[in-house]
Amino acid sequence: MARFLITSALPYINGVKHLGNLAGSMLPADVHARFRRGQGHEVLFICATDEHGTPAELAAAEAGQDVRAYCDEQHVIQKQIAEAFGISWDWFGRSSNPPNHRLTQHFCEALEKNGLIEERVDQMVYSVDDGRFLPDRYVEGTCPHCAYPKARGDQCDNCGRLLDPTDLKDPYSVISGSRNIEVRDTRHLYLLQSRMQDRIRQWVDSKSADWPNLTRGIAYKFLDEGLIDRGITRDLSWGVPVVKDGFPRPGFEDKVFYVWFDAPIEYIGATVEWAEATGGDWERWWRLDGGAGDVRYVQVMGKDNVAFHTVSFPVTILGSEEPWKTVDDLKAFNWLNWYGGKFSTSMKRGVFMDQALELLPPDYWRWHLTAYAPEGSDTAFTWEQFQSALNKDLADVLGNFVNRILKFTESRFEGRVPGGGEAGPLETRLYAEIGAALADATAQFEAMEYRKAAQAVRRIWVLGNEYLTEAAPWTAFKTDPVRAGVVVRTGLNLVRLMAAVAAPIIPFAAETIARSVGLDAAPAWPSADGEAELSRLAAGQAVSAPEVLFRKIEDDQVAEWTERFGGAEAA
Ligand SMILES: [Zn+2]
Question: Which of 99, 114, 137, 161 could be joined to 269 by an S-S link, Cβ 3.0–4.6 Å?
Answer without folding.
Answer: 99
